[in-house]
Amino acid sequence: MRELSETDHAILKASENMVDGIAAMYGEHTEVLLHSLDISNPSITKIANGHITGRTVGAPITNLALMKLNEGLDVSAPYMTKSPDGKALRSITIVIRNAQQDAIGLLCINSNLDAPFQSVMATLLPGLPPQGDASFSPETFARSNEEMMQSSIETVHTQVMANDSLSASKKNREIVIRLNELGIFDLKDSAQIAAKGLGISIHTIYRYLRELKS
User: Fold this and answer.
1) Is the pTM of this model over 0.85?
2) Domain that holds residue 157
């Protein structure tokens, strides 16, 4: 460890949203925290779900965290630890480096393995009805830009066609408007793919886009 520069502190500050993001993803049974490796005060600078270990901002770095840092791995293998009150934790430590590749911080994730299964699932699937009839966002994990575009076209097409407040003559234009808002037409060959998917000419697509820009 060494004294961190202003730039180092700025990097750690910018990394704080990762703490909130990971905690939001995995819920209340996963503790996420950011350690500063500033030699003058190696401590927690950001923590979410600190109730798992009882720690807060300012708590000192642990001996195990320092051991993981000395292993020389930027991402540790998952390891088992115990919280002060005896909860079994599955943990991982990630080293944060600056542009000079100096270690300036640690991102640590601790999942409570003793949490009740139903509580964990309720956290991971918020709002899940007892029957399991959850409503999922229509995200497609496409393997290519073309697949992503086709999926987006199909999703928007379904939404617009179900909108009875739009006349049939305006629906294709509305689809193009929504695809444009998604940034689809910034991608290569998007107009051709959209025209084929909607069953209209590419000239019609371009006309709608020109009208949007005018």
Assistant:
1) no
2) 145-213
Q: What rounded mean pLDDT belongs to the chain?
A: 85
* Phi (first) and psi of residue 175, to 5 degrees: -60, -45
Which amino acid would we find at residue 69?
L
In this structure, of 15-24, 136-145, 171-180, 198-207, the range with the lowest mean pLDDT score is 136-145
Phi, psi of 57 (to 5 degrees): -55, 135
Return the pLDDT at 21. Answer: 95
Beta bridge partners of 88: 82
Q: How many structural domains compose the chain?
A: 2
List 108's β-bridge partners, or say none: 33, 93
Q: Is the distance from CB of 201 to CB of 190 less than 8 angstroms?
A: no
CA-CA distance, 197 to 97, in Å (whole number)?
46
d(CA 59, CA 16): 16
In-domain check, residue 15: yes
CA dihedral 154, 155, 161, 167 (to 10 degrees): -100
Please classify residue 68 by burial: count the beta carbons closer than 10 Å to its beta carbon, then call 0-12 exposed, 13-18 middle and 19+ buried.
Answer: buried
The neighbour count for residue 141, using CB atoms within 10 Å, is 7
Where does a domain end: 94, 124, 154? 124
- Clarify whether residues 12 and 109 are in a common domain: yes
pLDDT at 150: 81
pLDDT of the residue at 94: 94
Q: State the alpha helices, DSSP H only, in 27-52.
A: none
Does 143 or 176 have the greater pLDDT score? 176
